[in-house]
Amino acid sequence: MKKNRTMKVIFNVGALAVLAALGISAYQLGTSKKGEIIQEILPMESVQKSEVKDTKEEASTQTDTSLVQAETDSDSVTAGENPVKEEAQTEDIKTASSAEVAADQAAGTGTGTAAGLNMAPELLFSEDTLMEWPVNGNILIDYSMDSTTYFPTLDQYRLSSGIAVQAVQGAPVQSAVNGKVLNIAQDAQTGTTVTMELGNGYQAIYGQLTDLQVAQGDTVKKGTTIGYVGTPTKYYSKEGSNLYFAMKKDGKPIDPIAYLP
Prior knowledge:
With 261 residues, this protein is α+β, with helices and mostly antiparallel strands. It contains 3 helices and 12 strands; from the N terminus they run H-H-H-E-E-E-E-E-E-E-E-E-E-E-E. Strands 1, 4, 5, 6, 7, 8, 9, 10, 11 and 12 form a 10-stranded antiparallel beta sheet that branches. A two-stranded antiparallel ribbon has the order 2-3. The protein is rod-shaped.
């Protein structure tokens, strides 16, 4: 019996030793695996955290850039740097200027806006200038400064410094050439009379007018209506309604027929 107890004790001690050895190995194995797992997990978490940090920094940089661009655009608009609006305003100004010039040209005058934009017709009359007839009609009295010509109403021969062109009363009288209204006067023989400067010392004189369309100082273009044929004065009662038309060079009468077609 004693021997059996001794054997049982030895067996139990050996079993405990084996179990103890096995427990230590299992503990070391478990600890090693946990360490490896932790080592594998930690780097991955560090990488993810690093990527998240980089993404946040990039987003912050983009946001800052957008804010700077927005502030720049806002400053540009505030400062009035609006090219579309400025272009539209420029076009409006151009359109308004063009309309005013066209109106002055249609009226045949160089006053107002057209004059300010140098749109007034040039006064460059010369010996080679060809005029237009101010009215269409037969010549009742010719120009004659070298010899006398007959005046029916006066029933006498006299020098004639201009021509009398037959025209119905109320017919429009057009400017024969570009000119500037120098003077408007009432003359006993030629009635309402308009004198125009043509340039280079030349003048044109229109008489027997009514309902003038021009004023002193106006610059008119060739072909512009300056008035209408009026009632003839008593000096032309037999000749009937007509336009008196004359020209001067440096104050001396010249033959207007030389410059008419």
